[in-house]
Design a protein that fits this description.
By secondary structure, the protein is α+β, with helices and mostly antiparallel strands. Helices cover 37% and strands 24% of the residues. It has 15 helices and 21 strands.
Length: 578
């Protein structure tokens, strides 16, 4: 059952509960050295016949709380109980005592952890009803809200896993807390009486469902300082004003971000005359340009310029390594970026080693990709302006950090200065990230590339429904371009793999998807995969494993979007899987 607070809702002032009494009755076998242990098949059934809470507020604001709890043990036997009392919203707890008129001697212990006082009492094994009286004193729980004091108390918490048949809550207040009953704001509405110099408030609670709490709230004109709750009217106005300043700053930052111009995707049937590194620069504003490195390497493999070798025969620890073997004769000349990629990867024994140690090489390749796009006129650099914007952002933010502590000297308006400085710093920080901007030619090229990629994804989805083998072949061909596409998150590759994963021996009318010539699988998993799966799925999954591992080692943060077809590739891409 969901947590249910029984309240009348008369108060309009918001505020967190000063104390949420979480109650837990633990039904377990006794510890070693006690009476014989319970049998495994013994069933336990119990309920709370009575829960009577009495809260006496003292002249100095202390709460003296007494809880009389009667357990109805209906089936099985019991040896101890625990009671958790949260104390985060009070200063301290003291004088915790547990007594019983019929359970015999009690062994009472208490401990503190995570803002709770746990009280545990042990008793001789018992199957008949029993009663305990728990008493304690709460210090610093009285609240102060403007010109009022308030008692806000969860008299019965929601932790009981059984219903309470008879629940009672009574609150006593010193007479000087209110000159007459009309000064007391009571929620829920209750009976009020005055006798012997005390206000006696009896709350109308009779029974509670399992895990149903009961809380009380009583307010009266301020008689003493208390735990401050809520904020005043002036602070609310300042808070709203600060939020408006922050909103203005965010809106300005959004417009500043618009300096990276983007166009509307154009529907084109032919791939644009762009290189992969140019496509990565056009499609990504930040770190995504790194995707051009694995994309270029995978494209060179598909053209027969390099062979990608996975693993090492008989060495399971090398199953996720990818080695690059460059062909002696190239079918075409290499571009500047392609030659640079082969040169950088050739410095290392494997892509795994390059990914972990070749940080400078990867940065040089990203810078080269941007320089080539600059030469093509797709982007324009603003490095000096970006650095100046970043400096202005830090200067403005420093003002805000200095203005924050000024709250204590300047009053509430110090927070306005802090928020204003933070707001103003958003814009220069945003502009500081804009080291390159698209030109008109860049916007036009981006529109064509985005439109073509969307068309490719759409056609692949249609082909997948009709011919999974053809979809797998087509997906493998265009995968380097999908790798630089920020709109492809890997779901398409998983769908293709799922479509190919049929039972072993099942025939297909479309033929098979074969392992490409540019790939060699020397891993220890190769033989097992081809023995257990269809040839089409095994070949596609192996291809995607190599694609995924290549991406993972070169650009780790893109591993999840590379579209591995198998669980093995996903695990490996996450950081050296099975």
């Amino acid at each position: 059952m969901a947590l249910a607070f029984v309240t009348g809702g008369r108060f309009s002032r918001p505020g967190p509960a000063a104390l949420l009494l979480a109650l837990a009755f633990t039904l377990l076998a006794p510890a070693a050295g006690a009476t014989p242990a319970l049998q495994d098949d013994e069933e336990q059934e119990w309920s709370l016949a009575l829960y009577d809470v009495e809260i006496r507020v003292q002249d100095d604001g202390r709460y003296e709380v007494t809880e009389r709890i009667r357990f109805d043990f209906r089936s099985g036997s019991f040896t101890f109980a625990t009671r958790d009392i949260p104390y985060r919203r009070m200063d301290s707890l003291s004088l915790i005592q547990v007594t019983s008129p019929d359970l015999g001697p009690l062994d009472v212990t208490s401990s503190r952890s995570d803002g709770r006082e746990r009280v545990r009492w042990e008793f001789d094994r018992r199957s008949a009803p029993g009663e305990v009286v728990l008493s304690y004193t709460a210090h610093g729980a009285l609240r102060e809200i403007g010109d009022w004091n308030e008692i806000f108390w969860a008299a019965i918490g929601e932790g009981w896993d059984v219903p309470v048949d008879d629940a009672r809550v009574t609150l006593y207040l010193p007479g000087f807390f209110a000159s007459e009953a009309s000064e007391l704001r009571i929620d829920p509405a209750s009976d009020v009486a005055f006798a012997d110099g005390l206000w006696r408030i009896t709350f109308p609670v009779e029974s509670l469902e399992r895990r149903q709490a009961y809380q009380i709230r009583v307010g009266f004109p301020k008689v003493m300082p208390g735990r401050k709750v809520g904020i005043g009217r002036t602070e609310i106005q300042i808070f709203i004003f600060s939020l408006l300043l922050l909103l203005i700053g965010i809106i300005r930052a959004v417009f500043a971000a618009g300096k990276w111009r983007t166009g509307n995707a154009r529907s084109v049937s032919q791939p644009p005359t762009l290189t992969l590194e140019e496509g990565a620069v056009l499609l990504h504003r930040g770190g995504g340009v790194e995707s051009a490195i694995p994309a270029t390497l995978l494209q060179l493999a598909r053209e027969g310029i390099v062979t990608l070798v996975r693993g090492e025969e008989g060495n399971r620890k090398k199953d996720d390594d990818i080695h690059v073997e460059v062909a002696r004769d190239f079918p075409r000349s290499l571009s500047v970026f392609e030659a640079a990629v082969l040169e950088e990867t050739g410095r290392w024994e494997s892509l795994k080693e390059f990914g972990s140690k070749g940080k400078k090489g990867k940065k040089a390749l990203v810078d080269l990709a941007r320089d080539l796009s600059l030469d093509r006129g797709f982007i324009v650099g603003r490095l000096e302006e970006a650095r100046a914007d970043t400096v202005r952002g830090w200067q403005t933010l420093a003002l805000g950090l200095l203005a924050g502590p000024a709250w204590f000297v300047m009053g509430p308006w110090g927070i306005v200065i802090a928020v204003l400085a933070f707001t103003l710093s958003i814009v220069p920080f945003t502009l500081g990230e804009k080291k390159y901007l698209l030109t008109s030619d860049g916007v036009r090229a981006q529109e064509e590339l985005t439109g073509w990629l969307r068309r490719v994804r759409s056609e692949l989805k249609r082909t997948l429904d009709q011919d999974p083998i053809e979809a797998a072949s087509r997906f493998s061909q265009v995968f380097p371009w999908l790798l630089v596409d920020p709109e492809e998150t890997g779901g398409l590759g998983r769908k293709v793999g799922k479509a190919l994963k049929r039972k072993k021996g099942e025939e297909t009318a479309q033929g098979e998807f074969h392992l490409p010539a540019w790939l060699e699988d020397r891993s220890t998993k190769a033989e097992k995969r081809y023995r257990k799966e269809t040839a089409a799925y095994a070949a596609f999954a192996t291809t995607q494993d190599v694609d995924t591992y290549t991406t993972a080692w070169l650009v780790p943060h893109m591993a999840g979007s590379s579209g591995g077809a198998s669980a093995a590739s996903a695990a490996g891409a996450a950081g050296g899987g099975a």
